[in-house]
Amino acid sequence: MESALLFADWLGTPAWMWLAFLGLVAGLLAFDLGVLHRDSREIGVRESLMLSALYIALGLGFGGWVWWALGSEPGLNYLTGFVVEKTLAMDNVFVIAMIFSFFAVPRAHQHRVLFWGILGVIALRAVMIGLGAALVTNFSWVLYVFAAFLVATGVKMLLFAETERPVGENPLVRLMKRRLNVTEEHHGERFFVRRPHPVTGRPALFATPLFMALVMIEVADVIFAVDSVPAIFAITTDPFIVYTSNIFAILGLRALYFALAAMIHRFAYLKVALSVVLIFIGSKIFVADLLGIGKIPPAVSLGVTFGILAAGVAYSLWRTRPGAAPGEAAR
């Protein structure tokens, strides 16, 4: 009976594969929090790069297992989704850095915020991907809506510079300060503290700036998921491939943040490459229909996506290299 349940089909994939994935993610999170970072401390660039390499290797290794277990096409779709989602997640670093700067979150406590943030991401992405899968299954035309949205987003990113609104002007920040008891100062790694209310004098629960930073990071992920979820559904509609590639790409973001935050300026043209990738992913659905070929082969999608992003990274590093002429440096 138990073996039958393990091999039962769940969203198009055997249940045991879902359990293996969830078990691996739970183990990684437990190892990260319980072994690597039991104490609050600042994470250096070297440690950040080593942990990032580990997470990327695990993500790619999982892709190899998907290839072996499900076949070459799901394997290639997973790798394409992983590369795209990883790049989109890296773009999120710019916003996270702004949030940490506004709330003056000490580097020693940033890992705690990012760890709890990733737990929220895992749940939120599951809900959003579940809704997306239900829409695509019941209304196939939604896939074309996703594709058109990606093309429009890519063109907007390519042609129009986005002006980031200061974190302090965000309506959610103002709402939290109006509706919650909020401390002005940090209290170590605590999200809430109990202290006398300034009006009544009675003990009351106060949110710390660390909690507000966590809320803002979760909201930022929801906003980024508006691009992320359609992008992966334009690559594949398999819920297992969509969710696993999403989560493995995001898992390493926490570790990669501390290295990227120190050298964000070196990736000035990555956003341009990402906009081209979004245009490519969205347009290939329409191109495939026009050519009557069903869909672009996964190997072609992976090759083009990786090539565009690699070119964007290489060009960024060259333009911002030490000793570059002022006119060459990225603005």
From TrEMBL:
<feature type="transmembrane region" description="Helical">
    <location>
        <begin position="113"/>
        <end position="135"/>
    </location>
</feature>
<dbReference type="InterPro" id="IPR005496">
    <property type="entry name" value="Integral_membrane_TerC"/>
</dbReference>
<feature type="transmembrane region" description="Helical">
    <location>
        <begin position="240"/>
        <end position="260"/>
    </location>
</feature>
<protein>
    <submittedName>
        <fullName>TerC family protein</fullName>
    </submittedName>
</protein>
<feature type="transmembrane region" description="Helical">
    <location>
        <begin position="15"/>
        <end position="36"/>
    </location>
</feature>
<keyword id="KW-0472">Membrane</keyword>
<feature type="transmembrane region" description="Helical">
    <location>
        <begin position="88"/>
        <end position="106"/>
    </location>
</feature>
<dbReference type="GO" id="GO:0016020">
    <property type="term" value="C:membrane"/>
</dbReference>
<dbReference type="Pfam" id="PF03741">
    <property type="entry name" value="TerC"/>
</dbReference>
<keyword id="KW-0812">Transmembrane</keyword>
<comment type="similarity">
    <text>Belongs to the TerC family.</text>
</comment>
<keyword id="KW-1133">Transmembrane helix</keyword>
<dbReference type="InterPro" id="IPR022369">
    <property type="entry name" value="Integral_membrane_TerC_rswitch"/>
</dbReference>
<feature type="transmembrane region" description="Helical">
    <location>
        <begin position="141"/>
        <end position="161"/>
    </location>
</feature>
<feature type="transmembrane region" description="Helical">
    <location>
        <begin position="272"/>
        <end position="293"/>
    </location>
</feature>
<feature type="transmembrane region" description="Helical">
    <location>
        <begin position="299"/>
        <end position="318"/>
    </location>
</feature>
<feature type="transmembrane region" description="Helical">
    <location>
        <begin position="204"/>
        <end position="225"/>
    </location>
</feature>
<feature type="transmembrane region" description="Helical">
    <location>
        <begin position="48"/>
        <end position="68"/>
    </location>
</feature>
